[in-house]
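Async update (no meeting this week)

Hi team, since we skipped the sync, here's where things stand on the single-chain job. The sequence we agreed to prioritize is pasted below, unchanged from the tracker. I ran it this morning and attached the output directly underneath so nobody has to dig for it. Comments welcome in thread, and please keep replies under the output.
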Amino acid sequence: MKYPSVHIIIKGAVQGVGYRPFVYRIAQAHGIRGWVRNDGLGVMIEAVASKEGLNTFVRSVTTTRPPLAKVQSMEVKDGPYKDPPESFAVVQSERGERIDVDITRDSAVCEACLAEMRDPANRRFGHPFVNCTDCGPRYTIIKTLPYDRPGTTMADFPMCPDCAKEYASPGDRRFHAQPICCPNCGPRLSCTDVKGVPYTGENPLRQCIDWLVGGKIMAIKGIGGFHLACNATNAEAVSRLRSRKMREEKPLAVMMGNVENAGRFAEIDVQEKELLESLERPIVICKKNNIAGLAPNIAPGVPTLGIMLPYTPLHHLLFDDGRLSALVMTSGNLTDEPIVYGNESAFQRLGAIADAFLTHDRDIYIRNDDSIARVMDGAPVMLRRSRGYVPEPLPSPDNVNGLIALGGVLKSTIAIGRKRMCYLSQYVGAITTIEGLEELRRLIDHFARILDVTPIGFVADLHPQSIVRFLPGIDALPLVHVQHHHAHGAACMAENELSGKALCVVYDGTGYGSDGNVWGGELLLADYKDFTRLGHLAYLPLPGSEAAINNPGRIALSALYATMGEKAVEALPWMPSEEKNAVLDMIRANTNCAQSSSMGRLFDAASAMLGICKKRTYEGQPAIELEGCADVNETGEYDSLVSVIGKEILIDGAGILLQAYHDFRKGAPADKVAARFHTTMARATADMVKRAIEKTGCAQVCLSGGCFQNALLLMRTNAMLKESGIQAFTHRRLPPNDECIAYGQLVVAGARGKFD
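Output:
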């Protein structure tokens, strides 16, 4: 006899999120017979019942899903079934012939688990690794797919009888929760000295809190790596952390126990609160309110504060003690290196920074730093995409199967293609060290293996001296190149799923141009295959080339010399005369002066000209502090100085800077001049775009590049475009900075269809 049945295949990030127990409970509620299992394609369901029962079951399964699930597709097929089982069961996973399932993201601990951890009568009371199917580590512990405990770093911890019972009980919240654990079966905390020798105290957590309260710097192991932590109310501890980590002025992230406490120190709107309390729990850039009580050296020179809330049980336990109100929690790494994630490497690399370590014996398989977000122009924008968001894929307009994009250098990521989906890695950092290159190689191998993709070629930046040429194995496959700003524009187009051509405004710091110069203030007419450069910021020489980036006064002098001639020597009174004359000599002789159209460098120059940031100690500092200084209520502006010279639309950045200089010399406050400069650059951008639309008839506009992390610039540019009836597309799922480069490289290579 044949029975009505349906076969359902659910694809996406559907393993490790409680999908099988979710389906099981629905089946039980509706009297369904059959089975559910994980395999290489995703979640497979075979359901047998009356037609009415099946309709109800299918409706429930297809319209609801577990909190952590990300469904890409769901296929339902009807068919008769012979000899169905007497009940519904979760059956053993099968890998299948191929892998087509997505990797699940890490998630913040849920409220139900926290309630258990805080209940003295619960067997998980005080357990710093409590988790269930709705929360906890996933991506960072997964070694292989399908997602089952033996394929994770939890395989080292056999379940105790109590956990095994929960794991096997369909009605339990931990039914088939792969990281399930308790105090009896581990993992376990350990408080050690800088050499990894454990302290003898019975409570490592309390020992760690004692030391934090007392002003010590702790290296604390989390989900994706180590944090370097200290008491955020202790300025001396913060100073020692800065000194040891060689992080002079770059703002430090602060973790606070809850959003109410965070509201004491920052203005937090509804969207920022949602981000802070989301399952992803990124660091959120908020406007400072009253930071009295916090160390003043946490975020010097800026009006914002990077805040995050606890996202692991361990973090909550640090604050539940009641003696800590705020902790500096910065990435556990050395300058320009990826975050440290292994215990032994942590002792080796962080031992000179930390006073002691709070670690544990659950291995991290893949490192994953904290994500960073900021609400800009009414919507969240990613500034760093890592924990909580990776590795959710993004679409490609063309087949990219087997292509591997190597991204940029300073904010590096890799991207790998599977069919028409792009899997972008977490933020790695600056690929300027052996450690960075090794991490890039490891990510390539991991993504290719776990996604079951056979690499067919690499895609890299156009720069002839790109660091990726040192990547191990780079010569084993064909290599193609994509121009830096074309990759930016293509990434914004693909993220917004645009077709055809778009006018791509790409403003950033440095990118190798097709003419051999340094680009960074570009207007491109682009599709996914190619681009035409329609306009740009007029070239300026960078005196000393790379040295000018760290000394933005050199760029200011260069711009002013281009418009004022020898009178430029009167500018920048803060700069020593000898240095000023040496720079001007370099400019006059055009010696070691790379030509640059970089918008980022122009913002740096404005910052130095106003005396806001005279020396760069971290990436983006001059422009960040210029934005921070600007009076957002000031609406004045200068002439936008946009013109057409030959076939190019040019913005005269030096001329705009000269107007700002004269305004400042006449006594206008720096905050007013900074705001007027921002507004003028927004106006110039809108004027350039309008001319390009008139010239090309193309009205799709994309904004990309690190300069659009500047909230004031983005907001005013969008407003001026809207005044002219132009709707610009921006990044929301990816950062506008160089983290999106790998994605853009991948879709460009896919559109070209073959390797040259």
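Quick observations from my side:
Residues 343 and 359 are 7 Å apart (CA to CA).
The domain at 189-372 is CATH 3.90.870.40 (DHBP synthase).
Reply here if anything looks off.
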